[in-house]
Amino acid sequence: MRIREVKYYFGRFNLMAHYTDTKEDFIYEGLTFGNEIIKGNYKWGFYNVEKINFEDNRYICGYLVKYNPKKDEEVVDQSLHKLSLEEINDSVKAKSRFFLHIKSGLISFHPISNQITDAQFINYFAEIFMEAYDNFFVNADIQIISNRFNILEKLKEFSKIYKINIILHPSNPSNSDLWDSVDKKMKELELSKLQEQYDIKQDKSGEKIKSDANIIAKLTMAEDGYGKGEVTGEINNEVKTISTKDNPVTDKAPDDNSSNTEVLESLKNTSQEIFKRFDSNENKENS
Fold first, then answer.
1. How many structural domains is the chain composed of?
2. Sign (positive/negative) of CA torsion 76, 78, 79, 82?
3. Domain co-membership, 60 together with 114
4. Measuring CA to CA, which residue among 150, 144, 229, 143 is closest to residue 182?
């Protein structure tokens, strides 16, 4: 039988919190407290969450589930040969599978067409997790990991740049030589977030900013899943905005009928390519 494949996105689960137990236990408990959120007619929560080992690496996997608290379902009464409505509680509308590499925060997840978008997964995952701790001294988000240097190539297409917006989080646990100085400065200043906007003078093209090492480093750090960068300007006399999130890293893996190991095996090469972006110590630990 042919194995059906689905698309997985890769992101970075950025966590800033005070905890006394291990990071693994803190994340696992946050995903298993049973909290849920309501969005429109649906509830969202985490289910089938478990810890697993894969090639000497620790993962937490499970599903972000979208479900209907109450739904009238049409059923048949075989004895009377009539149709009737029966109230069904907590019927699953869609579920999005995820795999979280604990040490690095690398998360791979499978959005569901027309039901759970990548943006919904990113936003609701973090919201439910923080709700588990009553939003008390815990801040979490997921940033999509993009193909490297894509935005730098796009930057060359601008004939004029109006502005650049950058939001960054400090790395955890390792960083890259390409943005090491930016990361160290944020940690030195004890920042939880860095937010900058560069506005170019109206009579200037912004050409110099394309080769500025500091800005290139920050945009690359955003592409690696530690934030977001946007550039607004003119391409072919049209105003355009490009983002570090425009070209996400994705891969194909077997669908939910396959085991955790089978899915992780399919995603392994892409995961290792992402790990290689960072320093040699992390590469050795995750190879």
1. 2
2. positive
3. yes
4. 229
Exposed / middle / buried, residue 246 (Cβ in 10 Å: 0-12, 13-18, 19+):
middle
What predicted TM-score, i.e. pTM, was given to this entire model?
Answer: 0.86
Strand-strand pairing, 106-109 and 138-144: unpaired
- Residues 140 and 19 placed together within one structural domain of the fold: yes
DSSP alpha helix (H) spans, the chain: 23-32, 118-132, 150-155, 180-188, 213-221, 260-275, 280-286
Q: Residue 18 is part of which domain span? A: 5-144+248-286
Q: What dihedral do alpha carbons 27, 33, 34, 38 form, nearest 10°?
A: -70
Give the model confidence (pLDDT) of 68-88 as tens digits: 987 777 778 888 778 877 778
Query: 24 with 140, same domain?
Result: yes
Q: Are residues 278 and 206 part of one domain?
A: no
Residues β-bridged to residue 139: 16
